[in-house]
Amino acid sequence: xxxxxxxxxxxxxxxxxxxxxxxxxxxxxxxxxxxxxxxxxxxxxxxxxxxxxxxxxxxxxxxxxxxxxxxxxxxxxxxxxxxxxxxxxxxxxxxxxxxxxxxxxxxxxxxxxxxxxxxxxxxxxxxxxxxxxxxxxxxxxxxxxxxxxxxxxxxxxxxxxxxxxxxxxxxxxxxxxxxxxxxxxxxxxxxxxxxxxxxxxxxxxxxxxxxxxxxxxxxxxxxxxxxxxxxxxxxxxxxxxxxxxxxxxxxxxxxxxxxxxxxxxx
Length: 266
Ligand SMILES: Nc1ncnc2c1ncn2[C@@H]1O[C@H](COP(=O)(O)OP(=O)(O)O)[C@@H](O)[C@H]1O
Ligand SMILES: [Mg+2]
Description:
Helix content is 36%, strand content 24%. It has helices spanning 63-71, 111-121, 126-139, 155-168, 185-202, 213-219, 243-257, 259-265; strands at residues 21-32, 35-47, 52-56, 78-83, 86-87, 95-98, 173-177, 206-210, 222-226, 233-238. 35% of the residues are buried. Adenosine-5'-diphosphate (ADP) is lined by residues 30, 32, 37, 39, 57, 59-65, 229. Keywords: ATP-binding, Nucleotide-binding, Transport.
């Protein structure tokens, strides 16, 4: 097989000092029938090129809201959200999102056409888009399925297509919102390994949301722990190399997120 059609570092732009993504004291919320609902507040972090930052926290602590703001779906209530040093004001192909839902593909388009779609929108000629799609299809392990339609694929295969489609757009940051949460345990493990393999091939920058602590430690280079609703930054932790240190980190995050449970078992 030929090498990656998108060479490692295709996303890189050579800003040495500017992080890809920077949040400064960001607060987000929703106007509801009963008043203002704060989803998360005072969130600050930055993401360097090629990093894998995991956001973990309890259900409802604002993880999806935060990722949605990075995607440009909603604006911060306070603070600044910068991509390559410029404020995010709207969605764009420089921030591709992969969701948990299996039905995030266009059902009337084949696997290859789904993957080529963002590039077609960006004006890439059909033949070139198709060639890139074929290479990505091989890289996500779907050789032979280029002309298949989404409804004929398993959940894991649909997820592979969604990842390939996001990578095809060469995003500055790949956003993933609990992408593997609906997969069976075995497929989930396999997809985690494959995501890391793709990261080694491409070197993309990743912002990944999960509520599973093991998943965060398995996939991240750094982990940002959010407090329960409304989410605030509780800790930012580097993921160590050794299995022993990783187990200790998992235990530490458990203590941060579930102090009551830890007390019960003490
Ligand atoms: N569209 C919405 N309108 C009003 N409130 C919302 C909306 N989406 C989420 N929320 C609320 O914002 C908070 C954070 O939600 P969310 O970002 O989905 O959390 P998480 O992804 O961590 O589970 C929750 O209290 C949730 O009920
Ligand atoms: Mg969520």
